[in-house]
UniProtKB/TrEMBL annotation:
GO molecular-function term, one example from the UniProt record: DNA-binding transcription factor activity
Official protein name in the record: TetR family transcriptional regulator
Gene Ontology biological-process entries: negative regulation of DNA-templated transcription
Superkingdom classification of source: Bacteria
Signal peptide: none
SUPFAM superfamilies: Homeodomain-like
Upper taxonomic lineage: Bacteria, Bacillati, Actinomycetota, Actinomycetes, Micromonosporales
Residues of the HTH tetR-type domain: 12-72, 206-266
Length: 387
């Protein structure tokens, strides 16, 4: 006999197993909250064994981010330039759904990559967008083909941001149909029933506590919660760092306050939009318009709430998760009234697809708030929902 028990039982693809497990842990916990010990436990090895494959957490994180995008690149490059849009989107959908647990890593956590790694990741993703844009331009010669391509990719990528349980084949069918509709939607077309959106105004900071919160939000949005220090926040307000603790017990309490403010503003926007709707179809259009307006107007606040909630302790995260579920339940109910053929989980999947459109289309527009941008993204969301 050759080799001992360890050699006989060690899988040949151990490195890939590690990357798959790490991608899921990073996606669920966030880069900074995840630990090498936690990843090692998920693989079933010791932390020491894990360090034999990766010198540190960052090296593992960077490989996770790149592998997912490399799979997307391979999916589009597996088809010739003249391939049909449906074939390209099918390939992207299958890759994304099969890596659902770890595929959301690039959406929020990629900002923790070092500059060179972040630039490389953007270059790869731009290649995917470029390939999809060419097929969209050829099959649907309408305005804003790149925006439509990015929004279609947002539909597909949305499945990595939630845990709605549906058979994989059905997920692929729903996402593909939604992405195809988005690609064929004219962003310049009027949504028809949308009324002007009146959003609740973000509170003017009139107390020192409110000033601290207002100063922290753009810092969290730009650099990530984990990278921002109390010293930076204090400097932004003109306080000594120790003075922060008179208003917030810790930095995490500032983050919780930001997330609660975001949830409150969004709930008010939803209430206002539904109050004006006169029928179910108009209600869904109004929800889409309100959500798009909220994301553009309160972009820094919303991005902080979306990106950082996974890193909060469970007891602090619970009420925020409940608020998110209540918001999605409103969409689900209204959408199923318009499209009664959908069951609750299918409707929920499409609602998240609409959210994915907003995230990726908004980024493509650099969140430049203008009526035309809001209307274009709202049209793409309603296209994703098949209204």
């Amino acid at each position: 006999m050759t080799g001992g028990p360890t050699a006989a039982t060690r899988p040949r693809n151990r490195r890939q197993v590690i990357v798959d497990a790490a991608g899921q842990v990073f996606s669920e916990r966030g880069y900074h909250a995840a630990s090498m010990e936690e990843i090692a436990a998920a693989v079933g090895i010791s932390a020491a064994a894990l360090y034999r494959h990766f010198p540190n957490k960052y090296a593992l994180f960077a490989e996770c981010a790149n592998i997912m995008v490399d799979k997307l690149v391979a999916a589009v490059d597996g088809w010739p330039p003249e391939a049909a849009l449906k074939d390209v989107l099918v390939a992207l959908t299958r890759v994304t759904v099969s890596h659902r647990a770890s595929g959301g890593l690039y959406r929020w956590e990629a900002r923790y990559l070092e500059r060179a790694d972040r630039r490389l990741l953007r270059t790869k993703f731009a290649h995917v967008v470029g390939r999809v844009t060419e097929t969209v331009r050829r099959e649907h010669p309408l305005p804003d083909e790149r925006l439509r391509a990015v929004a279609a990719l947002g539909v597909i990528g949305s499945v990595t941001m939630h845990h709605t349980s549906i058979a994989q084949r059905r997920i692929e069918e729903l996402l593909l149909a939604s992405a195809m509709r988005v690609a064929a939607t004219d962003p310049a077309a009027a949504t028809g029933n949308a009324r002007p959106v009146e959003l609740p105004v973000q509170p003017v900071p009139r107390t020192r506590r409110a000033e601290i919160l207002a100063a922290a939000i753009p810092l969290f949005a730009r650099d990530g919660f984990a990278n921002v220090t109390n010293v930076q926040i204090a400097q932004a307000v003109g306080l000594a760092p120790s003075a922060i603790y008179r208003h917030y017990p810790g930095k995490v309490d500032i983050l919780v306050a930001a997330c609660l403010q975001a949830a409150g503003l969004l709930a008010q926007a939803v209430d206002r939009s539904l109050h004006q709707a006169t029928d179910p179809h108009q209600a869904v259009v109004a929800l889409a318009a309100a959500y798009v307006a909220y994301c553009f107007e309160h972009n820094a606040l919303n991005s902080v709430a979306e990106a950082e909630i996974v890193g909060l302790p469970a007891d602090l995260r619970r009420p925020l998760i409940l608020a998110q579920r209540e918001h999605i339940a409103v969409w689900e109910q209204q959408l199923r009234t318009v499209r009664p053929e959908l069951d609750p989980r299918q409707a929920r999947l499409l609602v998240h697809a609409g959210f994915g459109v907003v995230v990726e289309a908004g980024r493509a527009l650099r969140w430049q708030d203008a009526p035309g941008h809001r209307e274009a993204v709202t049209a793409l969301v309603t296209g994703a929902l098949a209204l």
